[in-house]
Amino acid sequence: MKPVTMYATGLCPYCVMAEKLLRSRGVTELNKIRVDSDAAQLQTMMKISGRRTVPQIFIGDFHVGGYDDLSALDREGSLESLLHD
């Protein structure tokens, strides 16, 4: 399984939903980076994703986007193959 990284905050309901969805698809190791407690990580997230909102999810080197993007990939059946390619 490819490594999964999620930039998140402590009080983000979409981050919680994204983590639940990833776990339900077999992700056991999730590199969760908190941007609310580390301004440098927030700057890094914005630089590599081009976005300011959380969550920002990366599967391997592929930038999925936020929860809505992750959920859309799951609905169309692409998430499983992305995780396991």
UniProtKB/TrEMBL annotation:
<protein>
    <recommendedName>
        <fullName>Glutaredoxin</fullName>
    </recommendedName>
</protein>
<comment type="similarity">
    <text>Belongs to the glutaredoxin family.</text>
</comment>
<dbReference type="GO" id="GO:0045454">
    <property type="term" value="P:cell redox homeostasis"/>
</dbReference>
<dbReference type="GO" id="GO:0034599">
    <property type="term" value="P:cellular response to oxidative stress"/>
</dbReference>
<dbReference type="GO" id="GO:0005737">
    <property type="term" value="C:cytoplasm"/>
</dbReference>
<dbReference type="InterPro" id="IPR036249">
    <property type="entry name" value="Thioredoxin-like_sf"/>
</dbReference>
<dbReference type="InterPro" id="IPR014025">
    <property type="entry name" value="Glutaredoxin_subgr"/>
</dbReference>
<keyword id="KW-0963">Cytoplasm</keyword>
<keyword id="KW-0813">Transport</keyword>
<dbReference type="Pfam" id="PF00462">
    <property type="entry name" value="Glutaredoxin"/>
</dbReference>
<dbReference type="InterPro" id="IPR011900">
    <property type="entry name" value="GRX_bact"/>
</dbReference>
<feature type="domain" description="Glutaredoxin">
    <location>
        <begin position="4"/>
        <end position="64"/>
    </location>
</feature>
<keyword id="KW-1015">Disulfide bond</keyword>
<comment type="function">
    <text>Has a glutathione-disulfide oxidoreductase activity in the presence of NADPH and glutathione reductase. Reduces low molecular weight disulfides and proteins.</text>
</comment>
<keyword id="KW-0676">Redox-active center</keyword>
<keyword id="KW-0249">Electron transport</keyword>
<dbReference type="InterPro" id="IPR002109">
    <property type="entry name" value="Glutaredoxin"/>
</dbReference>
<dbReference type="InterPro" id="IPR011767">
    <property type="entry name" value="GLR_AS"/>
</dbReference>
<dbReference type="GO" id="GO:0015038">
    <property type="term" value="F:glutathione disulfide oxidoreductase activity"/>
</dbReference>
